Amino acid sequence: MIEFQNVQKTYLVSGRQVPALQSTSLRVEAGEVFGLIGHSGAGKSTMLRLINRLEAPSGGRIMVDGEDVTALDSAGLRAFRRRVGMIFQHFNLLSSKTVAANIAMPLELAGGHSRAEIKVRVDELLARVGLTDHARKYPAQLSGGQKQRVGIARALATRPKILLCDEATSALDPQTTGQVLQLLAEINRELGLTIVLITHEMDVIRRVCDRVAVLDAGTVVEQGTVADVFLHPKHATTRRFVFEAEHVDEGDLMSSYSHVEGRILRLTFRGEATYAPLLGRIARETGVDYSILGGRIDRIREEPYGQLTIALVGGDLDAALARFDAADVTVEVIR
Amino acid sequence: MDAFLAFFADIDWPEIWQATLDTLQMLGWSMFFTVLLGLPLGVLLFLTGKRQLLEQPIVYGLLSFLVNVLRSIPFIILLILMIPVTVWLIGTSLGVEGAIPPLVVGAAPFLARLVETALREVDRGIIEATQAMGASLWQIVTRTLLPEALPGLIAAATVTAIALVSYTAMAGVIGGGGLGDLAIRFGYQRFQTNVMVVTVVLLLILVQVLQMVGDRLVVKFSRR
Ligand SMILES: Nc1ncnc2c1ncn2[C@@H]1O[C@H](COP(=O)(O)OP(=O)(O)OP(=O)(O)O)[C@@H](O)[C@H]1O
Ligand SMILES: [Mg+2]
After folding, report:
1. Residue B224 confidence (pLDDT) above 80
2. How far is CA A2 from CA A48, A195, A301, in A?
3. Which of A88, A213, B111, B173 can bridge A92 by disulfide, Cβ–Cβ 3.0-4.6 Å?
4. Which parts of the sequence belong to the ABC transmembrane type-1 domain (chain B) (predicted)?
5. Min distance B25 CA to chain A CA atoms (Å)
6. Which residue puts its alpha carbon closest to atom 3 of ligand 1?
């Protein structure tokens, strides 16, 4: 669907070449929600803006639906951009136009739609984002969440196949963030829209993304399904994001375990196993004693998961490990 | 009261009326052509500027220099320098028509600079969003830049119109007609202080009205 082939980007800053994205190859499949996470300055926006060529790559090719975006002429680029919606951290709505006029804008720019057609489409979009009563207001009269809904409706106006989201929830409070993410998940499901979203919050990735790539200083350091990356982070940057999301510090955690007896394990349950009474049963059958040191039961998109850090003492440890393995619980020995 | 009326007794009111009409005509036409030239020039200055959509350092440098040259010439000198051009353009340098070319050449660069500044106030993100929608350059200018900058553009036009009022008065010096001409001919050359007072009051009213209308429009179109 979207394919980066050895794409790189350097900016020319006062005569000097500053690399923003190292040679990167990456695929985003049709219909998925793909997350890009990274710290400030990692190159997330650069990568996103390369897709609709708000930035031109310094090298490599970007293919969208088999079409080489990097080779488009200006008319072709304009037509292509109409098939790619984009929403922004600061919404970027036109302050001089009403909500309805903002949503109508991409259709008017594209041309070939009658007034009546545009009105029907705008009403439909207003209903989808739940803003029917606000059609005649100006952006300044809306809350942040409402402005982002207008942004989403505007991005969807020309029925694009792809939606690019640049930190779409970073300016919103947690509750509003939840609502906007829900709306994104809904349009992904119902319209089959491919979504590429960038964020610096792992929680956003966990709630809506299917797959994720972690960017660090212009390099993709890790990618995979959200569950794999989230539950078994490998790169230091990824680990930092994951621990950040759980509000713990990896170093602190290890030192607080220093006077805990026995084997320390991290168990990861996924799907059905999350709610099964496994721990008690295995302890009883193998004679091990356990204490729970920490943990979290939550969902990644729709899939439930649990991650427990436990200490095991006494009994038949090897038998217990074998039983966990048999129950599809991933065991990582921490100490 | 009688003394007050006596002070204005020998004023030729029809002549004042005619001069007022002349001033309004000069103002209207010169404002029309000033916007016609100054607005596109301002847009071009903005677009070719640093880190803008049409970044063109050489074009920007040349336009900017031209604007600075025209703005640095005192208007009274410009009036005289423009005489041959005006004669070539419309056949005479006298009367209302003769005043319009120097007025436009004096005011258009001024307006262009103000337009450039007003356009710079438009949020880059909004321009980018318009680009991402697949807009052409013309669409970006007409559908996003100008509407978003409208309050600033109206303020710019107001300041320019008021500057033009004082320029029209100066144009009277080279026989442009209007209230300025009247003030010089009667008030200065014939020591008719009363005519001077009346023309100044009329110019003041004109400036007040322009400022008030401009301010109202700015408020009306500000949605931020
Ligand atoms: N137009 C530009 N000119 C020069 N350098 C730029 C430009 N845009 C971005 N950069 C640089 O490229 C690097 C990556 O920037 P980018 O905006 O992609 O980061 P980001 O991951 O989106 O960060 P943030 O979370 O702060 O938005 C940064 O070092 C930045 O300074
Ligand atoms: Mg960014």
Report:
1. no
2. 11, 10, 22
3. A88
4. 20-214
5. 32
6. A11
Sequence-distant (≥ 6) Cβ neighbours of residue A322 within 8 angstroms: none
Contact A78 B136 (CB under 8 A): yes
* Smallest CA separation from ligand 1 atom 16, residue: A43
Report pLDDT for A116. 96
The answer to whether residue B2 sits within a structural domain is no
Q: In this complex, which of A77, A92, A109 lies closest to B143 when CB atoms are compared?
A: A109
Rounded Cα distance between B168 and B23, Å, is: 7
N-to-C CA span, chain B: 51
Please identify, by atom number, the ligand 1 atom nearest to the C-alpha of residue A48.
18
Q: Give the model's confidence band at B184: pLDDT under 50 very low, under 70 low, under 90 confident, else very high.
A: confident
Look up the domain containing B136 and give its range: 13-221
- Residue A20 CA to ligand 2 center (angstroms) comes to 11
Among B121, B122, B112, B117, CA closest to B63: B112
Q: How far is A123 from chain B (nearest CA, A)?
A: 19
Does residue B164 form part of some domain? Answer: yes
**Residue B21 token pair:** 């009409």
pLDDT at B122: 97
A185/B51 Cα distance (integer angstroms): 36
Residue B81's CB is within 10 A of a number of other CB atoms, namely 12
* Six token digits for residue A90: 């600061």
Size of interface A-B (CB pairs under 8 A): 66
DSSP label of A266: E
Q: Residue A95 and residue B224: Cβ atoms within 8 Å?
A: yes
Kindly list the distances between the CA atom of residue B82 and the CA atoms of A33, B21, B41, B95, B160, in Å, as whole numbers in the listed order: 65, 24, 20, 14, 20
CA dist., res. A52 & res. A250, Å (int): 38
| Residues B102-118: tens digit of each pLDDT | 999 999 999 999 999 99
Q: How far is B145 from chain A (nearest CA, A)?
A: 10
CATH code of the domain covering residue B41 = 1.10.3720.10
Instruction: Identify the residues whose C-beta falls under 6 Å from ligand 1.
Output: A 11, 13, 18, 20, 38, 40-46, 200
Mean pLDDT of chain A: 92
Whether residue B217 lies inside any domain: the answer is yes
Classified as helix, coil or strand, A145 is helix
pLDDT tens sequence across A31-59? 999 999 999 999 999 999 999 999 999 99
Tell the residue nearest (CA) to atom 30 of ligand 1.
Answer: A41
Q: Total domain count for chain B?
A: 1
pTM comes to 0.90
Spatial separation of the C-alpha atoms in residues A19 and A37, rounded to whole Å:
18
Reported ipTM: the value is 0.88
Q: CA nearest A52 in B: which residue?
A: B132
Q: Give SS3 for A258.
A: coil
Cβ contacts (< 8 Å) between B118 and chain A: which residues? none
Domain presence at residue B100: yes
Query: What is the A56 CA–ligand 1 centroid distance (Å)?
Result: 14
